[in-house]
Amino acid sequence: MLLALVPLVFGVMVLLTARRMGGARRTEAARRAGRGAHAEALRAGDFAAAAALAETHYGPQSAELATALLALSETAPPEEALPALRRALAILSARQAPPETRAAPLARLAALSPDADEAYAAITQSLAQTRRAFGKSAPEFAARTAQAARLFAAQGRAPEAEAQFRAALALATGPEAVTLRADFATFLAARGRTREAEVLRAAP
């Protein structure tokens, strides 16, 4: 009796395996089609369509969608890059992404945003995430500190800008140190601190 059931059981197993393989092939074909449509939209410069296709393809809260949106934000014009960046950062935050994943997009948001409060919050968060990810002596942290100094200066946040300029100068080397000294000197001169500005400009 048991031996008679063996062919039946084997047949059911073969059928189930075939169905699974067929489903996997269909899923992979759909993925390839989705990736192709997304790439085509990017090539055509239709960034809104590319973002929508990425969401449909990857799911609304997936890490893959965040990656696709970040890539889109690097090529899209600012008015389309900003929504993609904001959405990607919201996904990364919800997924509790590691600081090294969030630091650079936050810095990019700070550089692009026309909203002073958003830019300030973004660079402040980027500094914190960079420090956590790489440490205070890393080149990444030096670059973020310099960016913060220039942003705060442009926004008229004088005390914070000065603190960041001094911190950035303590970390900077080579041509960036020269550029930073010049920027800091300009900042000081604009506030009537000409003697300090002259000392900075005369520094080797």
From TrEMBL:
It comes from the Bacteria. InterPro entries: TPR-like_helical_dom_sf. Gene3D superfamilies: Tetratricopeptide repeat domain. SUPFAM superfamilies: TPR-like. This is Tetratricopeptide repeat-like domain-containing protein. It comes from Rhodobacter xanthinilyticus. The lineage of its organism: Bacteria, Pseudomonadati, Pseudomonadota, Alphaproteobacteria, Rhodobacterales.
